[in-house]
Amino acid sequence: MPTLAELQTIVLDYPCTGAFGESACNCPSSPCVAFNDPNTRSNDYWSATSFVLNPGNAWIVSFRIGGVYATGVGTEGLVSFYVRAVRGGL
Reduced to 3 states, what is the DSSP secondary structure of residue 51? Predict the structure, then answer.
C-alpha cells in the first residue's frame, strides 16, 4: 500500500479560491489524478501512513476532491475506501 506522500504525487494540484477565508476547491477532472486511467475510481484511497496523534487512524487521499484527511480504520471505513497497489524496490 502506498504512503501518503506516494499517493499525493498522483493527485492533481489545482488552486482553491474563496471569499472570507473559506476555500472553494473544484478539481478539474474526475477522478482527480494526474493521469488518465479507466481503472481509477473517483473515490477516497487508503495510505499506509498512520495519523501521529492517533495511530489507530490512517491518512486518506481523496481522488474526488484532491484533499487529504485522517480517518479511523474500522470496518465501515474499509468498505468505503479503495486501495492502490505499489511495487517496492527493483
Answer: strand
DSSP code, position 11? B
Q: For residue 88, what are the contacts with CB-CB under 8 A and spacing of at least 6?
A: none
In the chain, how long is the greatest CA-to-CA distance? 49
Domain regions of the chain by residue span = 4-80
pTM exceeds 0.85? no
The amino acid at residue 54 is N
> What are the pLDDT digits (tens) for 36-50?
788 888 888 989 998
Q: What is the mean pLDDT of each run of 10 residues along the chain (90 residues)?
A: 89 69 69 82 89 84 84 59 78
Contact by Cβ (8 Å): 32, 66: yes
Instruction: Report the first-to-last Cα separation within the chain, whole angstroms.
Output: 16
Three-state DSSP state, 80? helix
